[in-house]
């Protein structure tokens, strides 16, 4: 698409660069090198720390030297999801955006507007020769989506600024001052297998057509989780006392995305009954899921070859029961802030192959005690099933500071620029601000960004007009920072 038909042109030009260069989590070196070369060519300061984070810097505009320094922050990586049947290779192929009815999207893949637009906004601020601003540092972290490892690797002297604008939230008109913390509860082990008995027929069952989405900002929408729904169907089979064996399971590819598809390879005696029960189950699910999950379907395809081994009958039922009992979705709302999800869990990844099992559940909460309680509950379920379990941290919660002067400044600029009030909000998702607030306790920070829908899923899109408004707010804040 022609990015230069959109405004501000500099923001979209930088986003075009980010779309051109693959930047999956853990594979950001090419885009980091490109941006570092761009900055050096313009005489900007360039640093890369031991964790791979990039810091670009620019002195204050003349007359703004007495203002506290400002850090603009985003992350370089993106979540890589694609529709089934897509041949896109995220390690090699560029993202191909299109403009549809005022929204930029990529169709069969994630767009990377999360957080490519935030990065582009920060780069445009560095580039703008007419913008009046305090000393600027642009902090671009790596590996945010897979565990915030870049932010966790920052040292206290990484930046000097005293104010920070995180450009990684996705609802225009809202100023965020707090976020959820998160942990991953990961389980694995080897389950008992045996050659499947005679009389059982091999089939592949695929549940697909769900909308998916971000496991934090979309968890309250009631969207289906393909792993959980497939587990419910398998549990219904178990309740009939039918003999079935699980040979393989697969669902989800990212801990922080709602799984859109799940596949089971199983052996079943009554395949005709299986087809009928699956059809009734799918029809019932469609009536209970939100409209965006209306394309749900369950396909069962007979296999000509039987797998050499499958889980034993008891192991098949035990795993089905575990997946059925695992918490999924919203656990608590409104404890920290009215109307905001406090605590939730997403079952993001499931793999069973040759008896070897891997499950990753991601727990989020605005409250440390609730985060610990739900993660311990899930770990207990895993452990009681005999699985090896570990809980590993993602990021801490970011405690709101509604009295911060930076928030008051942003609200004032928003009011003056757009003639209305911004909504002050807390987000049920992980922002690196949780890590920053612990690393730099005296730094004031807020987060905002344009409207992005469907982040972490194919069809992700960003509203073009809101990108222009986000730029106006960013430029307005930088111009209005008072002297210390």
Please tell me about this protein's structure:
The structure is a single chain. The chain has 2 domains: 3-177 and 398-480, Zn peptidases (Aminopeptidase); 183-395, Alpha-Beta Plaits (2-Layer Sandwich), CATH 3.30.70. Strands 9, 11, 13, 15, 16, 18, 19, 20 and 21 form a 9-stranded antiparallel sheet that branches. A 6-stranded mixed sheet has the order 1-2-6-3-7-23, covered by helices on one side. Strands 4-5-25-24 form a 4-stranded antiparallel sheet. The longest helix is centred in the middle third of the chain and has 18 residues, at 271-288. α1 crosses α3, α5 (226-239) crosses α7 and α9 (405-418) packs across α11. It starts with 8 loop residues before the first helix and ends with a helix. The protein has 484 residues and is of the alpha+beta class. The chain is built from 11 helices and 25 strands.
């Amino acid at each position: 698409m022609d990015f230069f038909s959109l405004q501000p042109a500099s923001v979209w030009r930088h986003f075009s660069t980010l779309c051109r260069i693959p930047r999956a989590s853990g594979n950001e070196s090419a885009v980091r090198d490109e941006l570092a070369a761009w900055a050096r060519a313009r005489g900007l300061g360039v640093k890369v720390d031991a964790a791979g984070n990039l810091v670009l810097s620019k002195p204050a505009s003349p007359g703004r030297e007495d203002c506290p320094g400002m850090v603009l922050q985003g992350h370089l990586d993106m979540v890589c999801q694609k529709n089934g049947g897509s041949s896109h290779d995220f390690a090699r192929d560029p993202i191909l955006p299109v403009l549809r009815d005022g929204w930029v999207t990529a169709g069969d893949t994630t767009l990377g507007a999360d957080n490519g637009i935030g990065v582009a906004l920060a780069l445009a601020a560095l580039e703008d020769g007419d913008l009046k601003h305090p000393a600027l540092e642009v902090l671009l972290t790596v590996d945010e989506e897979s565990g915030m490892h870049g932010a966790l690797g920052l040292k206290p002297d990484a930046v000097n600024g005293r104010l920070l604008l995180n450009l990684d939230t996705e609802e225009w008109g809202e100023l965020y001052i707090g976020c959820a913390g998160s942990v991953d509860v990961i389980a694995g082990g080897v389950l008992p297998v045996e050659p499947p008995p005679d009389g059982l027929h091999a089939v592949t069952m695929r549940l697909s057509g769900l909308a998916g989405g971000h496991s934090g900002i979309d968890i309250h929408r009631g969207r289906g989780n393909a792993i959980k729904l497939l587990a419910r169907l398998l549990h219904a089979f178990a309740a009939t006392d039918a003999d079935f064996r699980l040979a393989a399971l697969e669902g989800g590819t990212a801990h922080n995305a709602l799984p859109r598809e799940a596949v089971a390879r199983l052996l079943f005696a009554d395949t005709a009954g299986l087809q009928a029960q699956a059809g009734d189950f799918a029809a019932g699910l469609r009536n209970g899921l939100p409209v965006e999950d209306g394309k749900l379907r369950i396909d069962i395809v007979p296999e000509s070859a039987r797998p050499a081994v499958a889980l034993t009958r008891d192991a098949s039922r035990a795993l089905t029961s575990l997946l059925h009992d695992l918490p999924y979705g919203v656990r608590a709302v409104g404890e920290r802030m009215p109307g905001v999800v406090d605590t939730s869990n997403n079952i993001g990844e499931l793999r069973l192959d040759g008896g070897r099992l891997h499950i990753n559940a991601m727990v989020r909460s605005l409250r440390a005690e609730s985060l610990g309680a739900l993660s311990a509950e899930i770990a207990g379920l895993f452990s009681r099933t005999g699985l090896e379990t570990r809980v590993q941290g993602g990021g801490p919660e970011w405690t709101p500071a509604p009295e911060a002067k930076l928030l008051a400044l942003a609200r004032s600029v928003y009011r003056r620029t757009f003639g209305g009030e911004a909504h002050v909000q807390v987000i049920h998702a992980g922002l690196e601000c949780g890590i920053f607030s612990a690393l730099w306790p005296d730094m004031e920070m807020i987060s905002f960004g344009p409207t992005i829908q469907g982040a972490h899923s194919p069809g992700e899109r960003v509203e073009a007009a809101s990108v222009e408004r986000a730029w106006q707010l960013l430029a307005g804040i930088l111009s209005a920072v008072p002297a210390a």
